[in-house]
Amino acid sequence: MFLVNWFFDVLGWIGIYKKSAKIVFLGLDNAGKTTLMHMLKDNIMQIHEPTLHPTMEEIEIENIKFNAFDLGGHKEARRLWRDYYTTVDAVVFIVDVADQERLEESKKELNSLLSCEELRSVPFLILGNKIDKKEAVSEEELRTIMDLSFTTGKNEKSKNSELRSIEVFMCSIKNRMGYKEGFQWIGKQLK
Known about the structure:
Elements: H1 2-13, E1 19-26, H2 33-42, E2 55-61, E3 64-70, H3 75-78, H4 81-85, E4 90-96, H5 103-114, E5 124-129, H6 139-146, E6 166-170, H7 179-189
Pfam families: Arf
Subcellular location: Endoplasmic reticulum membrane; Golgi apparatus membrane
Membrane topology: Peripheral membrane protein
């Protein structure tokens, strides 16, 4: 098995073989999900209207082709999340770290997702977005508020198949920083 994995890793490294994965972008409204999706796809920074209907984009990052679903984050959209995430390979949960009044609401939604049986073995990338704003909480504060002291490690693949892969990366989608490392981490988590 080691030889087969090594072979496909080498093919991916030289660009002949590409992994593919289905991911969902989740989080409260106005966290940056749609902006990130379009930044990754088109490399264009735009302000977007709130997502009213689920959308899907094909995105390629580091030899991985992602079918990325932006499901929206307003209360009505959150009721539909369950319909999409039962067959995903990874969850990207985006938190607006500058909107301190809604961090508890984000925590509640994240905890609901983490307790879902269908997502038990799915890696979770937590992106703390909007670190460019002065009112943004630090990574340490976000980990405390969201109760995320049990993460995998930024340079690690979870070695214990019983433990969920989960990690926090702070970013500014607007300033194009921090999220690339998060997607590199997801690439390591995917089989």
